[in-house]
Specification:
By secondary structure, the protein is mainly beta. It has one domain (1-21, 39-73). 0% of the residues lie in helices and 30% in strands. The protein is built from no helices and five strands. The strands form two sheets. The chain has a three-stranded antiparallel sheet with strand order 1-4-5, with no helix packed on it. The radius of gyration is 13 Å and the shape is globular. The two termini are 16 Å apart. Bound molecules: zinc ion. The site of zinc ion (ZN) has 8 residues, from loops.
Length: 73
């Protein structure tokens, strides 16, 4: 994947956590799981019961990480 900022090749890898990784427009203070019913929060990781993992691409120059939450890991 090419970096959308600088057009250089990005390094392919994963983002992992001990808990489900999700996007939310507003940070949670207490409940660290996505509100799937809200429609605004998106679960990004797969294998959430064993090893929450997202496919991701990193640009070291721009310090950007892109998560592809449609791609199998
Ligand atoms: Zn870049």
């Amino acid at each position: 994947m090419k970096c959308p900022m600088c057009s250089r090749d990005m390094k392919e890898g994963v983002v992992q956590s001990s808990r489900t990784i999700f996007f939310t427009p507003k940070a949670h203070k207490f409940f660290m799981s996505p509100d799937d019913a809200s429609g605004d929060e998106i679960t990004l990781s797969q294998h959430n019961w064993t090893r929450p993992t997202c496919k991701a691409y990193h640009c070291q120059k721009c310090k950007k990480v892109i998560i592809d939450y449609d791609e199998e890991v």
